[in-house]
Amino acid sequence: MLDYSYMKTDLDEVFSRGVGTFVDPDNTFRNKLEKKISGEYDQDIVIKFGVDPTRPDIHLGHAVVFRKLRQLQDLGCKVVFLVGDFTAQIGDPTGKSKVRPELSLAEISSNMKTFLDQVGKILKTDSQVFSWITNSDWFTGIMDIQVDQSSKVELEGKKLDPNSILSKAVIYENTRIQKTALKKDLIQSVSLARFISILRKITHARLIARDMFQDRIKGGEELFMHEMMYPVLQGIDSTVLAQIYGSCDMEIGGSDQTFNMLVGRDVMKMSNQPEQAVLALEILPGLDGVEKMSKSLDNYVAITDAPSDMFGKIMSISDKLIPIYFELTSYTPQKEIEKIKKEVEEGKTNPRDLKLRLAHEIVSIYHGEKEAKEAEKDFIETFSNKSVPKDIETVKAVAGAELSEVLISQSVVKSKSEWRRLVESGAVSDVESGGKITEPGKVLEETITLRVGKHRFIRIERI
User: Fold this and answer.
1) Do 334 and 357 belong to one domain?
2) Which of 58, 191, 380, 396 has the highest CB neighbour number within 10 Å of its CB?
3) Statement to judge: residues 84 and 56 lie in one domain
4) DSSP letter at 89?
5) Does the residue 228 lie in any domain?
6) What pLDDT does residue 3 have?
7) Does 212 have pLDDT greater than 70?
């Protein structure tokens, strides 16, 4: 017999740990999940997660959501990645003060391959509990299909004119994921008439209520109609997923997506569908402790970082970030985290010991226990005994090459201005000599091993 008291406690943590907002009126979603766990419900419980294909690299901030999705998979839910290849060409203005640039479908496709290759580090990806689909599947029409004149399109053995409507129809049908991967007989699509019918029920005041829209208006920035339509299109995605997969029971995302996800509930209600629950998760602060984790701000830890780099970056966080990093990036039990918070506040433990524990757990999640032990040993030897990491990055460069140019090419620094700032602040040193690099324009003379900042090492071999 199922131990319901354990299940209740477990679900309480699922819907509270790291959660900013959970919208589930009448406990509709939770009740369905409890029935799924107890074997009383045998249909799929579908969790929608919108994937932005403009950002192919996954860092610990993204992983906060993925780890929550993994918990839900383990409880019997099916995760559907909704790849916004169509809406990415519009650009969600969330957290942005300016309009985002459009991307070509080729760029989006390339980014998504990188993205999906990394997902398996956290999520189960077998078809019973995981699926993905692009929203161009229903937002592009037959006449949007562009056919190269040299293409060979056939129907029942007969060659078709590549530019004909019939040729476009054949390509359209045979490139819909709904048919090719999901084996659906009926292809769902969204017509302009359907889009307009939904807009008739959404007021301008509802859409303009977004904080970032208000900020743009107050700041004298332009606000374009296609940006205002983004939440509506995201809501339509939920209605279509419900038609394709049988339901769209919950949408999950960061707290900066709360508005969009709530509009999704409105659109589903207008479409006479059960409204999705909404689970908005807290945002993980970056390594700087100021902004949210972001690659563009260079305050991130990628889940593909080498174990030693990952370990060193976690060790560099400020003491005040220790509790929230434990909560959002580790599997440490919530009761233990409460104890850690108290210890940090009261100064009863050495923050370095807590960070060693945290870094070890994070590396073990993405690289395994063996790599975590080696990374911890390497860190202690490197920073306590001032040695060099075993897996130090090594590149080759010709004599006379500026160090700044070499480091920029290897993405160790982003620009010459960042290199100059690091040099002038004494943050770059020659490991072998122990001396600081003091000249921003220094060139490579002999093979050199550099320490850049607190945790980055690189050896540049002269050729």
Assistant:
1) yes
2) 58
3) yes
4) G
5) yes
6) 42
7) yes
